[in-house]
Design brief:
alpha+beta, Alpha-Beta Plaits, four-stranded antiparallel β-sheet, 36% helix
Amino acid sequence: MYFLMICPHHSGAEIAARRDQLRPQHREWVASGGGGLARVLTGSALWNDTGEGIGNFGIIEAADETAARAFANGDPFAKGGVIKRVELTRMADTFQAGRIQPLTVVA
């Protein structure tokens, strides 16, 4: 199953600093698919009009919503208090995932 994952972040200078501190671990989490919980097809930071980070999004593949949520909640950004909430929306079964080069490294 494919999911659109949107993760708005808390705001403030302390959150920006924490996000910067956790970014390497976040990228490792994404590359591993959370230790195999999901496969990240694409994702990126979300910015406001002034270039301030306000969240992140991803298109992920997971066995079900439980696995997708475990991936999202295990992210160092979530565990570190950067993410305000996780929004998961299941995508259509006809989603053409093959058109995207995945970010997750498959061992």
